[in-house]
Amino acid sequence: MQARKPEKLTFERMTELFNDDSARQSDKVLLGKEMSIIFDVSAGVQRVVQSGLLLQMPDYRCGFIRRGWVRAKINLVEYTIGAGTMAFLTPGSIAEPLECSADFMLEGMAVSAELVHLALNNHLPRIFNGHKTDGRVRVSEETCGIGDRMLHLLFDVSHKTRYDNQVVLNLIAAYLNFFDQQFAEGMEMPVGHNVSERFLFERFLSLVNNHSRKEHHLGFYAGKMCITVRYLSTMIRKASGVTAKEWIDRSLVTQAKVMLSYSNKNVMEIADELNFPNASFFCKYFKRLAGCTPQQYRAAR
Q1: Are strands 69-74 and 77-82 parallel, antiparallel or unpaired?
Q2: Smaller CB count within 10 Å for the chain: N or C?
Q3: pTM, whole model, 2 decimals?
Q4: CA-to-CA distance for 180 and 128, rounded, in angstroms?
């Protein structure tokens, strides 16, 4: 059976999926080149389910499920999530909606990485700094209402101003930080309270996200940050409770799993793309971290 290749859910593709009679209502959807806001994605989700599409997110997505439920695979893991859940996806995440209730309604925002960094002045909230690719959390009806009002305010202002307007950027920042606040108590990884530690940690994760496919050694990252390998190792362990090498390994294994699940590339090609010296070395590395060989992992998907 030929593996399906994920389709990028670009802003242009979103326009195709949501551009029907109901979605064209000016009070329901705003589809732009760097930001989109939709107050009811049910029609588009139904199209995706019926078409069996596998979607890869090139940007940030965050929103609330207001009614009903959806069953979907998100970054290889299947979830069923319902009303009162807020969720986010980071760039590179892969989603496959499998089924949703007839009354399913989700509202949310898609925003480009460039606009996110501009709005937040490159200081990303914890949930968006790279150590989590996606997340879900149940919140109160009151919290959903606050998020809804924030999104409507951003929607209304965006209809009247250009996207580079500082008011729009501030509202984007507020909405993303609001999400971060709701997830704060459920974070899997405690980030150090010291501001300099947190900044170093976030800078390191950003570099790992951008370069781990080719750069596997701590010396590269320490050099980019103008610090010693020893200092980098100490500070990352102190800030996160996880070693710097483990963050690199997590990134590499995640990328390998995505390619094994959603591409037809053979093990040798994946090893080469991830800059391993040979397929044998890659297979041993993958088995040590994933608990099975690449071939076994692919066969089980």
Answers
A1: antiparallel
A2: N
A3: 0.70
A4: 8
Structural contact between residues 236 and 298, judged by C-beta atoms closer than 8 angstroms: no
Q: What are the tokens at 219?
A: 């010396």
Tell me the residue type at 16.
Answer: E
Q: Cβ–Cβ contacts within 10 Å for residue 47, how many?
A: 15
Q: 98 and 45 in contact (C-beta within 8 Å)?
A: no
In degrees, to the nearest 5, what angle opens at C-alpha 242 toward C-alphas 173 and 121?
A: 20
In this predicted model, which residue has the larger pLDDT, 118 or 230? Answer: 230
Given a cut of 50, whether residue 293 has pLDDT beyond it is: yes
Q: How far apart are the C-alpha atoms of 29 and 208, rounded to whole Å? A: 35
The count of residues in the chain is 301
End-to-end CA distance of the chain: give it in Å, rounded: 12
CA distance 189 to 246: 13
Strands 85-89 and 35-38: what pairing?
A: unpaired
Helix (H, G, I), strand (E, B) or coil at 31: strand
Q: What DSSP state is assigned to residue 181?
A: H
E strands, 52-156, in order: 55-56, 60-67, 69-74, 77-82, 85-89, 94-100, 105-111, 134-138
Amino acid type, 115: L
Q: Which pLDDT value is given to residue 300?
A: 81
For the cut 70, the answer to whether the pLDDT of residue 200 exceeds it is yes
pLDDT band at 227 (very low <50, low <70, confident <90, very high): very high
- Indicate if the pLDDT at residue 189 is higher than 50: no
Helix, strand or coil for residue 288?
Answer: helix
Helix (H) / strand (E) containing 176: helix 166-183
Show the tokens assigned to 204: 């390191």
| Cβ proximity of 225 and 232 under 8 Å | yes
Please list, residue by residue across 194-230, b when 16 or more beta carbons sit within 10 angstroms of its beta carbon and e when fewer do.
eeebbebbbebbbbbbeebeebbebebbbebeebeee
CA 130 to chain centre: 8
